[in-house]
Every structure is written in structure tokens, then in C-alpha cells.
Amino acid sequence: MSERGSGFVPGLEGVVAAETRLSHVDGEAGELVVTGFPVEELARRATFEEVLYLLWHDALPNAGELADLREALSQRRPLPGATLDLLRAAASEGAPPMDALRMATGTVSLGTQGTSPDTDAAYEDALAVVARFPTIVAAYKRLLDGEEPVAPDPRLGHAANYLYMLNGEVPGEGSVRALETYLNTVADHGLNASTFAARVIVSTRSDLVSAVVGALGALKGPLHGGAPGPALDVVFEIGEAHRAEAVLCEKLGRGERLMGFGHRVYKVRDPRADVLATAAELLYASDGDEALYELALEVERTAVALLAEYKPGRGLQTNVEFYTALLLHGLGLSTELFTPTFAVGRVAGWTAHCFEQLERGRLIRPQSEYVGERDREWVPMGDR
Ligand code: COA
């Protein structure tokens, strides 16, 4: 077939590139369905392990199946020496946590076949990366802070272990529920850029660790998973509610984008923003800086109103990142951990999409439209 494509769609906007049973994003209605459940229900009721099982097996686990999954993750949570050595080296260079997570994820291949795409190898890779993400991020944060990593506690679940390994203390129930709500809310979200990247890589029958490393690279960018840190920075910069309008107008006047607002698919409010707003409200009311929460609400109201004024008709609303920032800050996480924590949740979706791609998918190989020159004349070096 000729490489001359017709109907070039910049950014592949509106192009359907996969069939999936994993999640459905309805951008007009502002709805997100994950494995048949509204995201609100999974966020409120499920543990992260239950959502992971649902994504991997398209069914709710019974008690035995859930216990087996928890045990399998628990066994794989501790970091091998090679991973820890790499994290120590990265910390001594002060590498950003997302870079450290990307590099450390590569070491998961040391314990596996690495190149075999068969189902068992892919499942083993998936278990290892999902189990180790929180351990890697928490260990790295402690190393950056000049502290020794804390080993995982086999009695704790996935979300609780993450907070435990970060802080060295068993977290309270409210914090665990808030983190679980967050991880479940971001676990899968249609064919977003990082998920697409993972599917492209695995579609070549490459291994699942490579796919997850590629997905991490896509997630890191500020137009995808890198927005919550800057979103919170703006709230801090504003500082007091009466300054919101002036600060935001100045940014918009300079042509800057307001982080935490706008979405390629949602033209109404991102349903995940509501789920996380409710979780943040609970968290801040029980144990947090309520003034900051109130300020953030005011910043959000002002931003949405100004975006309608400055960019009429674009449907720019609050996205998931705005309340992610508030919730994770309320859990005591520093801004540099926001995107890695997004990855701790989203790796569930990446791995599930890899399984789907391996089972049913075809090599992903779109076309490009050549817009360069033709029939150029070769000029010898001396004449250039
Ligand atoms: N602040 C100000 N203006 C914004 C904006 C924002 N957050 N998001 C989009 N716009 C504007 C664009 O400048 C563009 O204006 P124009 O028509 O005058 O050129 C218009 O709205 C459409 O934007 P476009 O770039 O086509 O939308 P997109 O679908 O490519 O972008 C995002 C989606 C998410 C990349 C974009 O909204 C954005 O950059 N948001 C901020 C970063 C963020 O929060 N990312 C996390 C996403 S979950």
C-alpha cells in the first residue's frame, strides 16, 4: 500500500485505534466507565487490588482469587539489589523521580525472560511492575531525602504499603481510603497517550516491561501526567482567594495554559475531578489544611469562569489533575511525587491494555503523508 495517506488527522483526534473492554470515556456526557462500572463506584468501594483484578480478568475476584493476587503482589514487592543500586546511583545525581522510576522499571527485566511475549511471561512481568512501582517510588523518595528505604510490610495492601514505605509508619484508614480512591480513579482511561504508547510497543510482540517503560515516558510530559505539580504551584502562588482573578488573568494574558484545566476528550467537567474533589473534601475535613481546600475551590471557580471568557466555546473545564494535586498534597506527598503516583495507579491500565493487545491486537503501524520535496539533485560535498 502506498505511504500517501489520505485524511491526515493531527493528534489522531477522534481516530479509533483499538477495541477495548477496559474503559469508556464519554467526553460529551462527562462519564467514565471502567470494566462496566461507573468510576465513582470503583473509586468509593473497591480496593486497588480488586480494580487490578477486574482490569486483568474482566470479572470481580472472589475471596480466594483476591487473596492469591494480594499474595502474588506481596512476594514481588521487595526490590532486588540491582534495582536498589540503580536508585542509589540516580539519587546521588539528583535525578527526577519519574526518570528514576523509568530507569528502575527497566531492571524488572533482569528477573524475567524479557523478550518473550507469551501470556505467562507477560503476566509475570505485569505482576512484577505493578507490585514494584510503589516500592521504587517510595525508596527513591527516601534516598533523595537522605534516608534509607523502608521494606514493604507483607501484612499491608498495595495502597497502605505505598504510604508505609514512604513514611515508615502504618497509615490511618482515612489516608489509605483516600489513596485507594485516587489509584482506582486513574487506573484506566481509554486510549490516552501513555496507554497508546504501551499498546504500540507490545503490538510489535515486544515485552511488557518495554511497553511500561515507554508508557512512563509518555506519561511524564506536562500535557499528560505532568500537570498536577504545576496546578498546585498556581494555588500556592495565588495564596489568597482575592488574588485569584488577577494572577490567572495575567497568565492567560501571557498566553499561558492553566494547568489542571482542559481535556482532549472531556468538553464538560471530568468526572474524575468530582470523585477526587469529594475524596479531598473528606481528607481535608478530617485531617488537613481546610483553608487550602477553600482556596483551591475559589481558584477552580475563577479559572473556569476566566477560561470561558478568554477561550469561549472551547469547553475548558477542570480536569483530573487539579484535584489530584490537592488530594495527594493532603496525603503528605510532595509535588515531585505526583506524576510517579499517577503511574502507580495507571500501570494497572497499561498492563491490562498490553494483555488485550497481545490477545487480539494487530501490529500498530499507521501511515504518514509525505510533504517533503521530490526529485532533488545530489550536490557533491565541494559544491555545497
Ligand atoms: N488553559 C488555557 N487555554 C487552554 C487550556 C488551558 N488549560 N487548554 C486548552 N486551551 C486552549 C488552547 O490554547 C486552544 O486555544 P486556541 O483555540 O485559541 O488555539 C484551545 O483551548 C483548544 O486547545 P487544544 O490545544 O486544541 O486542546 P487539546 O485537546 O490539544 O489539549 C490539553 C488538551 C489537556 C493538552 C490542554 O487542555 C492543556 O494543555 N491543559 C493544561 C495541561 C493539563 O492540565 N493537562 C492534564 C490533562 S488531564
List the helices and strands and how they pair.
Elements: E1 23-26, E2 31-34, E3 37-38, H1 39-45, H2 48-57, H3 63-76, H4 81-93, H5 97-106, H6 119-144, H7 158-167, H8 173-186, H9 193-203, H10 208-219, H11 228-238, H12 244-253, H13 271-287, H14 290-310, H15 320-330, H16 338-360
Antiparallel strand pairs: 1-2, 2-3
Helix pairs in contact: 1-8, 2-16, 3-6, 4-5, 4-6, 5-6, 5-10, 6-7, 6-16, 8-13, 8-15, 8-16, 9-10, 9-16, 10-16, 11-15, 12-14, 13-15
Descriptive notes:
This protein has a three-stranded antiparallel sheet with strand order 1-2-3. The model has no long low-confidence stretch (mean pLDDT 93). Helix content is 57%, strand content 3%. The chain has 16 helices and three strands. It has 384 residues and is an all-alpha fold. Strand 2 (31-34) and strand 3 (37-38) form a beta hairpin. The longest helix is centred in the middle third of the chain and has 26 residues, at 119-144. The protein is globular and about 70 Å long. Helix 6 (119-144) runs parallel beside helix 7 (158-167) and helix 13 (271-287) runs parallel beside helix 15. It has two domains: 23-222 and 336-360, Citrate Synthase, domain 1 (Orthogonal Bundle), CATH 1.10.580.10; 228-330, Cytochrome p450-Terp, domain 2, CATH 1.10.230.10. The site of coenzyme A has 17 residues, from helix 15. Residues 223, 227, 257-264, 307, 311, 314, 316, 319-321 line the site of coenzyme A.
